[in-house]
Amino acid sequence: MTARLPIFVLVFCLVLIASPSRAVDFQDLPEIPLSSQRDDLSLLGRSSFLVDPEGVLSLDAALRSDGWEPATEASRKRGLTSAKFWMRFAVVNDTAVPRELVVTHDVGRLTDFAIFTISPDGQVDRRAFDAMQAYEDRPLAYAGAAVAFTVPAGERREVVARFGNDHAIPIHLNLMLWSERGFEHHSVTSTAFFVFWIGCLATAASFWLLYGIFMRQARMVVYAVYMSAVASTYVIFSGVGLQLLFPGNSWLQHLGFDWSVFMLTAAAYEFVRRHLDLERLHPRHNTVLRVAVGFYATAALLALPAQAPVIETPLTFFALMTMPFHLTWLSWIAWRSDGLKYASWMAFGWGLVSLSTLLTASVTAYFVPYLAISHIILVRLVFIGIVIESLLLSASLAQWLRGQEVRRIAAETAASRDSLTGLLNRRGFEAHVHHLKRTGLWPGKLWLVLIDLDRFKDINDTYSHAAGDGVLTHFASMLRREFRANDVTARFGGEEFILLFEAETEEAARSAADRVRQRFADTPTRYDGFKIGHTLSAGLVRVGNSPDEDEATLIAMADAALYAAKKAGRNQVRAYSDLDEIEGQGQPTPGKVVDLTSLSSAAKARS
Question: For helices 218-238 and 258-275, what crossing angle results, to 10°?
Answer without folding.
Answer: 160
